[in-house]
Amino acid sequence: MTLRLDRDRLIATMEEQATYGATEDGGLHRLALTEADREIRDWFRDQLRAADLSVRIDEFGNIFGRREGSDPDAAPVLLGSHLDSQPNGGIYDGVLGVIAALEFIRTLDDKNIETTRPIEIVNWTNEEGSRFQPAMQGSGVWTGAHDIETERTKTDDNGVAFGEALDNIGYRGDVPAEPGTEYDAYLELHIEQGPKLIEADVDVGVVTGIVGFTWGAVTFHGEADHSGPTPMHHRSDALVAAADLITSIRRIPGSLGEQTVGTAGYINAEPNSINVIPGEVTVTWGFRDPNDEVVEQAYQRVLTEAKHAAEREGVNYETEERMRAPAISFPDRPVNAVQRAVNQCNYQSLELVSGAGHDATHLTSVCDTAMVFAVSENGKSHSPDEFTSWDDCYKAATVLANAALELANDVTE
Amino acid sequence: MTLRLDRDRLIATMEEQATYGATEDGGLHRLALTEADREIRDWFRDQLRAADLSVRIDEFGNIFGRREGSDPDAAPVLLGSHLDSQPNGGIYDGVLGVIAALEFIRTLDDKNIETTRPIEIVNWTNEEGSRFQPAMQGSGVWTGAHDIETERTKTDDNGVAFGEALDNIGYRGDVPAEPGTEYDAYLELHIEQGPKLIEADVDVGVVTGIVGFTWGAVTFHGEADHSGPTPMHHRSDALVAAADLITSIRRIPGSLGEQTVGTAGYINAEPNSINVIPGEVTVTWGFRDPNDEVVEQAYQRVLTEAKHAAEREGVNYETEERMRAPAISFPDRPVNAVQRAVNQCNYQSLELVSGAGHDATHLTSVCDTAMVFAVSENGKSHSPDEFTSWDDCYKAATVLANAALELANDVTE
Q1: Choosing among B225, B245, B252, B259, which should be mutated to test the A contact, i.e. which has the most A CBs within 10 A?
Q2: Could you tell me if B248 and B304 lie in one domain?
Q3: pLDDT bracket for residue A166 (50, 70, 90)
Q4: Same domain as B376, residue B320
Q5: Residue A1 lies in a domain
Q6: What digits encode the pLDDT tens for the residues B324-358?
Q7: Within 13 A of A191's CA, how many CA atoms are on the CB side?
């Protein structure tokens, strides 16, 4: 039997959360560990308590709510995402996953449904990574990918330490930031942040994994001469080499894979004056693909293209790979549970690999993990233009709930 | 008979001036109307007085020293350049022209040589345009190209007005900033700031004019999406369009003229984050050529290339021409005087068109103007690496002196 959520309550709760850190253009500005984050955390903690969940806050600020199962010793099913936003972000990103999990619990209570396994909801601290880096910081600490003491010393642009900011908003909890027990599964609902679902005209996305990526930078060193009297054949123009590389970064994905993407997102030129030939320019690369070998090929290609660009312009260069993350493939068990929930609801779905990282990335090291994607109407995110219809929010939440319900009652091990 | 300058005194005076605003790496940091500028002005005024010149300072801070001729009513010959420098500039740029003029006067005094025409030396205020824009401000006001009251209100990066800064260093003089009388000729000695003379292996440059130029900017408007989940075919990447245009700007001169140069010196990308597709990018163009028609062709070409680059990437764009200056051709009379001085000294010379603007640009509207270029050893300027050997300083100064002497005695009108 399919579990039906309360659509009106889901919408009302989404609208209520969107009032904390609301911007004039209908978006959210709710950076991690700011006053707006404290307010949404207070509100969220109250909602957990109102739903009779036992609330615990760990020493990194991750907030958990637990609903006991009929077998309190069974490994729990964990559901959640994040309540923080990008600067001037949208009202769905992350939050929808937390509110959907809350609506699931409320519905179980409404219908007096008991599950075998305990169910926990989580709000991970600082998923966005806008104010403090890295992104997915709370889940990274909790799963042991990052050291908590190191992360507490990270500072924002104003020199405020993460630990200081967390203490200031009163969300340094007393529970260790670690699983502490075995978990059965983690399910995360998130908006797609891309156009694949809307283009395929489906109801919901079944996420089978997360792409791998390489991030890095190339710095070209030329000669900063006066732009007037220096003949063209005497120039070593660092910006021309960088431009050459940027157009290569645009082309590389087209010769690698259907799902490969490549971006030059950042550029800095020195001295950056209309009247001076640029002497030093740094440009970044980012390549993503579901296949680690393709990511490696993209990395090798950008190194080759940087070399060619430097040679063509007669400049020196250096490269620095800043980050490499392997592709993640979710295990069959939770993915199949999501797919069965889709079928049960008679929804149309698309299997896809997430092009962005999520807290689920870290959770894969702790337990069976999968994700549900809600349709992004225009493929946009991190912007007030981000939009998912209430219908699509409801469908994705319903899939999450039914998949979670199956997992929470499945104790055949 | 060729006039011989005092080589040792010329060098000593160049070395002495270089102590005002000296940087640790042997360069100069002597921005207009700063304390270092006040000090070099005090020193220069003392040198003029010591040479028995009558000193006058105009209300825009331009400093003049006058040596009377045997016919005090004859139109004077004006010699000079500027004592201010770029941030971390070199010790020759501009200054050599002022010191060479001073050495000429001193030599005339040593040898008791009287000229028919009066001779005046000038230090123009703020040639560099680093602290206050535009460049060549003092000569621009003096020749009537700019309005003095408007220029006095221009502010530096700290909001200090030009007029306030000029008053603070005590160099707002009481003479109107205008010629006031007819001038016979203006000669300016400057380092080349390019490699043409050193490549031609000559002693000195005979400048026949100044290139024309167009300066402007193109802004591309794309879509700032998340760099992960946005497929390549969904992107409108403003930085890719800008990169496309930059490589075009590098190529355009090669299809226009032997002396055409083109530069993209400035770029700004938004939001400029490794993880976001650039949504808005501005890049500047600068094209120069001795022929105005070629400058116009370059302008039309950059507009066409901006259109193509925008179309290829599917972004919008807008262009703005910020400045257009016609090419200047110096009249034969002063150019021939410079060439005769070269021949008289048995020097090898190259005729060339200045690729950079100079105070001489403005002086052409007032009187017959020409320039002498000293060899730049590595073609560099606006840098502590700027270098002209004392031999080359002496040769260029000697040519300036002999050309000026001829003009100052030529009253056949």
Answers
A1: B225
A2: yes
A3: very high
A4: no
A5: no
A6: 999 999 999 999 999 999 999 999 999 999 999 99
A7: 31
